[in-house]
């Protein structure tokens, strides 16, 4: 009985192995192409050195950033943040809000994206922010608090 089961198992594997190879080849052949989402040119290239609106911000949380404002399209604005010292804060996120300075993250704050490393990061401000100065909030999800905020009109941090 043991020998008959071994023969049956051998025949079954002999049929399933080529079927698995054919199935894998067919799956690779009919798979969808991976979408290519290129980064818009206004976000990919850093602003030229000495561009207007360059500000330097040093805050108590160990963050040293260079801020640049630009207008990549009519009515649109972008902010470029360049950390001069690597942020040693976990999960640092950048939010924008048109509201006044607050100790906590405002309810109307819009997430722009993460901030990590020493590479310049450019964020497009929301469509309605073209003429509104607003504020950037640097928020850490690890501690659940606002580390720093920056008034985009003056480029300075509000007094504590």
Q: How would you classify the helix and strand content by structural class?
A: alpha+beta
Q: For the terminal residues, how far apart are their CA atoms?
A: 85 Å
Order of strands, main sheet, comes to 1-2-3-6
| Main beta-sheet strand count, sense and barrel state | 4 strands, antiparallel
What is the class of the domain at 52-151 in the CATH system? Mainly Beta
- Write the CATH architecture name of the domain at 52-151: Sandwich
* Count of helical regions: 2
Strand segment tally: 8
Share of helix, binned: 10-25%
Mean pLDDT: 76
Give me the Rg, rounded.
26 Å
- What order do the helices and strands follow? HHEEEEEEEE
Strand content: 25-35%
Taken from the alpha-carbon principal axes, the silhouette is elongated
Low-confidence stretches: 155-160
**What is the multimeric organization of the chains shown?**
single chain
């Amino acid at each position: 009985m043991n020998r008959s089961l071994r023969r049956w198992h051998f025949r079954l594997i002999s049929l399933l192995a080529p079927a698995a190879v054919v199935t894998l080849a067919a799956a690779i052949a009919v798979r969808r192409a991976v979408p290519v989402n290129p980064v818009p040119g206004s976000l990919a290239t850093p602003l030229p050195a000495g561009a207007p609106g360059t500000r330097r911000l040093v805050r108590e949380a160990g963050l040293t950033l260079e801020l640049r404002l630009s207008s990549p399209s009519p009515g649109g604005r972008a902010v470029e943040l360049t950390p001069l010292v690597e942020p040693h804060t976990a999960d640092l996120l950048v939010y924008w809000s048109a509201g006044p300075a607050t100790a906590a993250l405002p309810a109307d704050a819009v997430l722009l994206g993460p901030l990590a490393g020493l590479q310049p990061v450019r964020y497009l401000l929301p469509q309605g922010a073209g003429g509104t100065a607003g504020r950037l909030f640097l928020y850490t999800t690890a501690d659940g608090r606002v580390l720093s905020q920056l008034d985009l009109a003056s480029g300075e941090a509000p007094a504590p």
